[in-house]
Write a structure and sequence with these properties.
This protein has 294 residues and is α/β, with parallel strands linked by helices. Helix content is 36%, strand content 12%. It has ten helices and eight strands.
Length: 294
C-alpha cells in the first residue's frame, strides 16, 4: 500500500523522498506488524504530508510581514529570535514600498492572508499606517496582527477604529503569563474586531527550535517535514524567504553568537528583481539551501 502511494505521485515529484526517508520507511516496516492497518495508514499519511509540501499552489496561503525584531517578552527558544534581538523597527517607508511592489506583482490578489508579526508588532509606532497600506493594496485578503497581547488593553480608541475600518483581526498567542484573556476577547468583540487564538485555545508553553549549526542536514527531508514550508512565506525589507527562521537566524542569531549560517541567493526572492508571480509560487514549493540548518 505504501509503495502504491508513492507510485501514484507524479514522476517529477518523487525525488523529494530522500535516502534517509526511505531508510526510515524500510526499518520502520521491519519493526511493525503489517497486519495492523493503522500502522500502514500512519506511514502513508506521513509520506503524503511530505509530498504535499512540494505541490505548487496557485496562491500564497500566508505571507508574514515582519515589521520589527524585538519584543516585550523574552521567551526562551523563540524561533523569531526576538528574545535576543536589539531594538529594530522596519521603517514605514520600507514596508509601504514592499507591499506596493508585492501588490503590483500579485495583482492585488493571490495572497489569502497577511500575518503582521515581529517581535511584538504593537510596539511599532506606525502599525496602523502599515495595516492601511496592506488593505489598500490587497482589498480581499485576510489581515491579522499576531500579538502576545500584553499591550492590547492599553490601546486607545484609534487603534480599535483602525482595525475595524481596515477589517484587520487580532491573532493572540496565549502564553503562560498573567493576562485577562477573557477580558481582551470581550473588548475585541465589543469593538467589532475579529479575535482568534493562534493555533489552539490552550496556553503555548514551549518553543523548541533545533538548529543544525554544521549545516549537515538534508534540505529536502527538512523541507518535507517542516510545518511551515510552502505555507508561510516571510517578507522583510525587499525579500521573501521561505520561513522566518532563515531570515532572522541569518540577521540576529549569527550576529549574537558569532555564527556563520550561510544565506545564498537560492534562499530568497528579491521582490524588486522578480516580476513573474509564477516564480514566487515555484519558490515556495522548493527546498531551500538554508533548510540544511534544520
Amino acid at each position: 500500500e505504501i509503495a502504491d502511494t508513492i507510485e501514484n505521485f507524479p514522476d517529477e515529484k518523487k525525488w523529494y523522498i530522500s535516502d534517509k526517508l526511505f531508510m526510515e520507511l524500510k526499518y520502520g516496516l521491519i519493526g511493525h506488524d503489517l497486519g495492523v492497518k493503522s500502522d500502514i495508514d500512519q506511514m502513508k499519511n506521513e509520506i503524503i504530508y511530505g509530498y504535499q509540501r512540494f505541490i505548487q499552489r496557485p496562491c500564497y496561503e500566508l505571507l508574514i510581514v515582519d515589521i520589527l525584531d524585538h519584543c516585550n517578552l523574552r521567551c526562551k527558544g523563540c524561533d523569531h529570535f526576538a528574545c535576543i534581538a536589539d531594538p529594530y523597527f522596519v521603517s514605514f517607508e520600507t514596508v509601504k514600498s514592499d507591499i506596493e511592489r508585492i501588490g503590483k506583482v500579485f495583482k492585488g490578489d493571490y495572497i489569502m492572508q497577511f500575518g503582521v508579526m515581529g517581535g511584538e508588532p504593537l510596539l511599532h509606532p506606525d502599525l496602523l499606517d502599515i495595516l492601511k497600506v496592506i488593505r489598500k493594496n490587497f482589498p480581499n485578503a485576510r489581515i491579522s496582527v499576531y500579538t502576545n497581547g500584553l499591550l492590547l488593553k492599553k490601546q486607545k480608541e484609534d487603534f480599535w477604529k483602525g482595525l475595524r475600518e481596515n477589517n484587520v483581526g487580532i491573532m493572540h498567542t496565549r502564553y503562560p503569563i498573567p493576562l485577562d484573556f477573557d477580558g481582551i476577547a470581550e473588548k475585541a468583540r465589543s469593538e467589532n474586531v475579529t479575535y482568534d487564538y493562534y493555533q489552539f485555545n490552550g496556553e503555548k508553553e514551549l518553543f523548541k527550535k533545533v538548529i543544525n549549526l554544521k549545516g549537515s542536514g538534508d534540505p529536502v527531508e527538512s523541507f518535507a517535514k517542516c510545518h511551515i514550508s510552502n505555507y508561510g512565506n516571510f517578507l522583510m525589507e525587499g525579500k521573501i524567504y521561505g520561513c522566518p527562521f532563515s531570515c532572522l537566524s541569518n540577521r540576529i542569531f549569527n550576529t549574537k553568537f558569532n555564527q556563520h549560517l550561510r544565506m545564498t541567493e537560492q534562499d530568497y526572492i528579491d521582490i524588486y528583481k522578480e516580476d513573474d508571480m509564477e516564480n514566487y509560487f515555484k519558490f515556495s514549493a522548493r527546498p531551500k539551501f538554508y533548510c540544511r540548518y534544520c
